[in-house]
From TrEMBL:
Predominant place of localization: cytoplasm
Keyword Iron: no
Purpose of the protein: Plays a role as an inducible effector molecule that mediates Fas resistance produced by surface Ig engagement in B cells.
Transmembrane domains' residue ranges: none
Organism: Edolisoma coerulescens
Family: Belongs to the FAIM1 family.
Pfam family name, one: FAIM1
Protein name per UniProt: Fas apoptotic inhibitory molecule 1
Keywords: Apoptosis, Cytoplasm
Places the protein is found: Cytoplasm
Cellular component, GO annotation: cytoplasm
One GO biological process term: negative regulation of extrinsic apoptotic signaling pathway via death domain receptors
Length: 182
């Protein structure tokens, strides 16, 4: 594997199926552009005469749309911005905080990252979309699933406050797991 000599940008993007590493090489003399997602080459262009522009690709199991914008700042200086689903990375991550809950936990020596997509009620664990069973209970809903023979349940209860909306709590083996901030 050739050494990444023209590496100009690295981003970490937290999606439902995991945290993905995006690396970008830009040869400002050759115009070469290479995009790596999780260490795998997704795009390679040699000898691009236009040094500015845009490269589009997908990330992760959900094939999330991504783009890297290459803009000239001054002279031979360039700025690289990553967009996810048409939004700047910052805006995308701010929006994601509102639409998902994430929990990190360790069961039997193995780390698990559990993500709830609030709009679809999809549950992801370490990159796998989980088989779930939902049920209505007295004070809200419960979504049941199993991780490594441990019974898991995400309880959704109204906060009683319009601004806060619904509160989601992960319970594993009758123990409440605190939400993680990514």
């Amino acid at each position: 594997l050739e050494k990444m000599t023209d590496l100009v940008a690295v981003w970490e993007v937290a999606l439902s199926d995991g945290v993905h590493k995006i690396e970008f090489e830009h040869g400002t003399t050759s115009g070469k552009r290479v995009v790596y997602v999780d260490g795998k080459e997704e795009i390679r262009r040699e000898w691009m005469f236009k040094l500015v522009g845009r490269e589009t690709f997908t990330v992760g199991a959900t094939k999330t749309k991504a783009a890297i914008n290459i803009d000239a700042v001054s002279g031979f200086a360039y700025e690289y911005t990553l967009e996810i689903n048409g939004k700047s990375l910052k805006k995308y991550m701010e929006n994601r905080l509102k639409t998902t809950n994430t929990w990190l936990l360790n069961l039997g020596g193995t780390d698990y990252r559990i993500v709830l997509e609030k709009d679809t009620m999809d549950v992801w664990c370490n990159g796998q979309n989980m088989e779930t069973a939902g049920e209505f209970v007295e004070d809200g809903t419960e979504t049941h699933f199993t991780v490594a023979d441990h019974s898991c349940c995400i309880k959704a209860v109204s906060s009683g406050k319009r601004k806060e909306g619904i509160i989601h709590t992960l319970i594993v083996d009758n123990t409440e797991i605190p939400e993680a901030v990514e």
